[in-house]
Design brief:
There is one protein chain. The protein is an all-alpha fold. Helix content is 72%, strand content 0%. It is built from 14 helices and no strands. Helix 3 crosses helix 14. The protein is globular.
């Protein structure tokens, strides 16, 4: 029996190692390509280890592309969308999970129904509405329509429902109001799911390309995704090493956020119980 368990564990490690290699290979290839010269990238696409090593892609990134401005714009948009989602989505999830009010089930059913509608159907009416409001070429055109996401509310609601009602009732007996219960009980106990929402929302806003392409006209307001795409199309084929370096640089914030919040991310999708 012990030998069988050892063999099963060995096979599991082998499969996991293969999956890890397959998953990491594109990232390693991206990093290694950022240190290659244009001739190496174009003439030896199968090369993995750059010989010789060059930093021209990174120097060109900060010389030819105003990457700091692009980072500032993207952080403003992605950070604002993430913070607003955490606040308003958690409030809505708390109400749906722990409060009683007329039409709660119908409202939640409507939210689930909207998740089945393809988002592309809203592009034209949303753009028309924001254009008539004069929001085009402003940050708010990307921030305000995204400050609530029904999937995030659904995920938080499912998590908050696991919090024992006895804890909330005890707080009410002690005189705590709903805002106090939300801020001092629900939010601290919902850190795992809120961290997960923060990762998913920040990653979605950071990697968004179509939204900035549609609403941001001025180059001074471009995000990293839009700025890098516009830069790549300006001189095709002549700045390929800068593009690889740019891919590495714009991936780092997502990687850093995930590394700091990964333990909460894992807890949110595991079988967490408060009882």
């Amino acid at each position: 029996m012990l030998k069988q368990e050892r063999n099963e564990r060995t096979r599991a490690y082998i499969f996991l190692s293969i999956g890890l290699i397959i998953t990491l290979y594109p990232f390693v290839l991206m990093v290694m390509s950022s240190f290659m010269t244009p001739s190496q990238l174009l003439n030896n696409p199968s090369m993995i280890i750059p010989m010789p090593l060059t930093f021209s892609g990174y120097t060109g990134l900060f010389k030819d592309l105003n990457v700091l401005l692009l980072f500032k714009n993207t952080i403003i948009i992605a950070g604002s969308v993430t913070l607003l989602n955490l606040f308003f989505d958690s409030l809505a999830a708390f109400a749906l999970a722990k409060l009683k009010f007329p039409g709660k089930n119908a409202l939640f059913g409507f939210m689930l129904f909207t998740l089945m509608i393809p988002g592309v159907l809203f592009f034209i009416p949303t753009y028309t509405m924001l254009y008539n409001w004069g929001w085009v070429n402003h940050y708010r055109a990307l921030i305000i329509p995204s400050f609530v996401q029904f999937y995030s509310i659904f995920l938080m609601k499912q998590f908050m429902e696991q919090i024992p009602d006895e804890v909330i009732e005890a707080a009410r007996i002690d005189g705590a109001s709903d805002p106090v219960i939300y801020s001092r009980i629900i939010v601290p106990m919902s850190i795992p799911v809120m961290a997960t929402i923060a990762i998913l929302t920040f990653m979605g806003a950071w990697n968004d390309f179509f939204g900035p392409l549609l609403y941001l006209r001025s180059p001074s307001m471009w995000t990293v995704q839009l700025g890098l795409q516009m830069f790549s199309s300006s001189i095709p084929g002549q700045n390929i090493q800068v593009l690889w370096a740019g891919e590495v640089v714009i991936t780092l914030p997502i990687l850093i956020v995930f590394l700091f919040l990964q333990k909460y991310f894992i807890r949110a999708f595991t079988n967490v119980s408060f009882k």
